[in-house]
Amino acid sequence: MIKAVIFDMDGVLLDSEPLIREAAMRMFAEHGLTVQPEDFRPFVGTGEDRFIGGVAEKYGFPLNPARDKARTYEIYAAVVNGKIKPLNGAPEFIQKARAKGLKLAVASSADQIKMEINLGGIGIPMETFDAVVSGSDVTKKKPDPEAFLKAAEKLGVAPKQCLVVEDAVNGVQAANAAGMKCLAVMTSFTAEDLHEADWVANDLADAPDEALEW
After folding, report:
1. What does the pLDDT read at residue 81?
2. Can you give the pLDDT at residue 7?
3. What three-state secondary structure class fits 86?
4. What pLDDT is attached to residue 195?
5. Calculated CA dihedral for residues 111, 112, 117, 118, nearest 10 degrees
6. 8 an active-site residue?
7. Helix axes of 17-30 and 65-80: crossing angle, nearest 10 degrees
8. Where are the beta strands (DSSP E) in the chain?
9. Residue 48 confidence (pLDDT)
10. pLDDT value at position 44?
11. What is residue 202's predicted lDDT score, i.e. its pLDDT?
């Protein structure tokens, strides 16, 4: 029944969350605001608009979204240089899915510029996938299912025939709302946090075979 795998990016193919968090903290510091790493946790997996905007709201900071997000990406591009690599098992899982004849997509709440930086940096470029959906391609971010549904549409596959690979609670909820099965990896959250997924693994090297065989 499975015909496609839709990957989230951050926390699934690589772990860039600490680095984008560092970049955002530096951006806020340039404006004289000191924020804490834990301030970002509720907004993991929701895209940079919310990742940065949610923290700004907490502190009553007058965010200029276009300016401040662009500056965050400038800092981020410098921060990640040579520091990102694929998460354990990610390239092999992609190869295994492809060998089974499955279609592949990546659907992330991140903007395309971040996707290009990240995927190019880990040697899994966007051309690896049959379809790509970025945060700028959707009007509603996770936990809304729009990104996953749009990926399935681009692949020409019914939602119920798709496996989503996620690491965030928001992403698992989006997969469920899309009517897709979900494999969650514990990069960012615990197994208890991710209990709504169909399968939970430490990483993609530890993913159960049945996740690609139903």
Report:
1. 85
2. 98
3. strand
4. 98
5. 70
6. yes
7. 130
8. 4-7, 103-107, 131-133, 162-166, 181-185, 199-201
9. 87
10. 83
11. 97
Q: Which residue, among 152, 171, 155, has the nearest Cα to 108 in the 3D structure?
A: 171
* pLDDT value, residue 146: 98
Alpha-carbon dihedral sign for residues 122, 114, 70, 172: negative
Position 198 scores a pLDDT of: 98
What pLDDT is stored for residue 9 in this prediction?
95
Give 10-residue mean pLDDT values along the chain (214 residues). 96 92 97 97 86 97 95 94 93 98 95 91 95 94 95 98 96 97 96 98 97 97
Q: What is the DSSP string of 77-132?
A: HHHHTTT--BPTTHHHHHHHHHHTT-EEEEE-SS-HHHHHHHHHHTT--GGGSSEE
Q: For this structure, is 49 an active site residue?
A: no
Q: CA 187: distance to chain centroid?
A: 11
Q: Which residues contact 96 (CB under 8 A, 6 or more apart)?
A: 212
d(CA 26, CA 55): 13
Q: Which of 3, 8, 2 lies closest to 173 in space, CA to CA? A: 8
Cα 42 to Cα 49: distance, rounded to the nearest angstrom:
13
Q: What is the CATH number of domain 4-15+85-212?
A: 3.40.50.1000
Measured CA to CA, the distance from residue 45 to residue 48 in angstroms comes to 9
What are the DSSP calls for 194-205, one per residue?
A: TTTSSEEESSGG
Strand partners of residue 162? 4
- Encoded amino acid at 25, one letter: M
Instruction: Give the active site residue among 10, 15, 111, 144.
Output: 10
User: What span, in angstroms and rounded, lies between the C-alpha atoms of 144 and 201?
Assistant: 23
**Closest C-alpha among 171, 188, 199, 207 to residue 88:** 207
